[in-house]
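Customer escalation, tier 2.

The customer says the design service returned an amino acid string that "doesn't look like it belongs to this structure." They asked us to rerun it and document both sides in this ticket. The original structure tokens are below, unchanged.
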């Protein structure tokens, strides 16, 4: 098969943009790793890039399917740009559709949908500007404050946990001034952090779970922040499967699948949770375009610990997408 790869490469922030503005974009090593898996499986690959480059290349290139990694640039619908164009042109692609990709980028919308499916998620408020902040938010401190539609911990720092109204006001000012978008303020869940990988469609299942544990400091205050993600080798330990009771693991797995289905994710997603003081998993957010760098991506790190080769993960995503589009080729899902 001839497989196009859509992607946006990391670049250096310019002018007065926040230093993490391109944090979620891919490195060339990720594209090379995926290309190499697809080529080794006998496919031909074509680099389509992202943004305007993608528009030009997709109009001038014949492909059977697109492996979509494009994070896009812009507001909360940016991840929907490439899939929308592909739908317009009738070209199949891997992963979720524009609605799911836009929905899951907006953390407030995501939590409303996932919460309505019966999955626990921390109580929250969306604050669009400084005027919408008042002392009576109806939330219990400590709180965490995050940009409403970012990923890769953009806008989430070591000090994003706030203990009182003064701290919240200060952090809200910083966030709105730096990122120019609404903030999600939610109750801080002090327990263990676990991320779950889900794969498939009608056969959707959890392929693994991984605990993200701080090497330094107390678990209860831990934030998997921008600083920690950039310095993960020093600051965190990844444990898979998570050392939790089988009851908690079952609850996590059930919640991850419920969230995946409620958000109508396709082919692949990674879902983040914290365990509450009540021992129950609380859903934080969903990543239907999870980082796939073979060395640094949470999902690739997790499946390696589970004994699943990287190539198998990538090919399973492809084969699930082929099967969904009723395309032939060795479309047997592996994991
Ligand atoms: N309600 C919460 N309680 C405790 N910690 C939280 C909460 N929300 C977020 N965090 C911490 O902040 C981190 C980043 O938050 P979140 O996963 O929402 O951001 P993200 O930028 O979308 O992440 P990703 O890199 O997975 O895309 C979490 O991994 C967790 O450590
Ligand atoms: Mg996350």
């Amino acid at each position: 098969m001839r497989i196009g790869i859509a992607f946006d490469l990391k670049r250096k922030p310019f002018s007065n943009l926040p230093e993490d503005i391109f944090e979620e974009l891919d490195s060339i090593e990720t594209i090379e790793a995926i290309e190499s898996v697809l080529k080794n499986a006998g496919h031909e690959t074509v680099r389509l890039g992202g943004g305007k480059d993608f528009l030009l290349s997709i109009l001038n290139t014949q492909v059977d399917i697109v492996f979509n990694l494009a994070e896009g640039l812009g507001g909360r619908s940016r991840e929907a740009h490439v899939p929308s164009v592909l739908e317009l042109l009738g070209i199949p692609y891997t992963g979720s559709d524009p609605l799911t990709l836009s929905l899951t980028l907006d953390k407030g919308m995501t939590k409303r949908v996932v919460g309505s499916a019966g999955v626990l998620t921390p109580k929250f408020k969306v604050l669009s500007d400084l005027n919408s902040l008042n002392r009576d938010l109806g939330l219990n401190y400590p709180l965490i404050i995050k940009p409403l539609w970012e990923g890769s911990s953009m806008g989430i720092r070591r000090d994003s946990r706030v203990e009182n109204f003064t701290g919240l006001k200060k952090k809200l000012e910083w966030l709105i001034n730096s990122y120019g978008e609404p903030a999600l303020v939610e109750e801080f869940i002090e327990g263990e952090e676990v991320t779950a990988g889900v794969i498939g469609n009608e056969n959707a299942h959890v392929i693994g779970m991984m605990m993200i544990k701080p090497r330094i400091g107390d678990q209860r205050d831990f934030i998997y922040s921008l600083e920690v993600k950039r310095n993960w080798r020093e600051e965190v330990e990844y444990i898979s499967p998570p050392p939790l009771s089988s009851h908690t693991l079952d609850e996590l797995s059930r919640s991850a699948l419920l969230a995946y289905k409620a958000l109508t994710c396709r082919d692949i997603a990674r879902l983040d949770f914290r365990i509450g003081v009540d021992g129950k998993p609380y859903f934080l957010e969903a990543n239907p375009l999870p980082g796939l760098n073979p060395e640094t991506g949470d999902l690739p790190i997790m499946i390696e610990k589970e004994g699943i080769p990287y190539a198998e993960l990538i090919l399973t995503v492809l084969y699930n997408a082929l099967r969904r589009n009723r395309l032939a080729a060795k479309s047997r899902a592996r994991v």
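Tier 2 assessment: The sequence is consistent with the input. The CA atoms of residues 180 and 248 lie 38 Å apart. The first strand starts at residue 2 and ends at 6. Sent an explanation to the customer and offered a walkthrough call.
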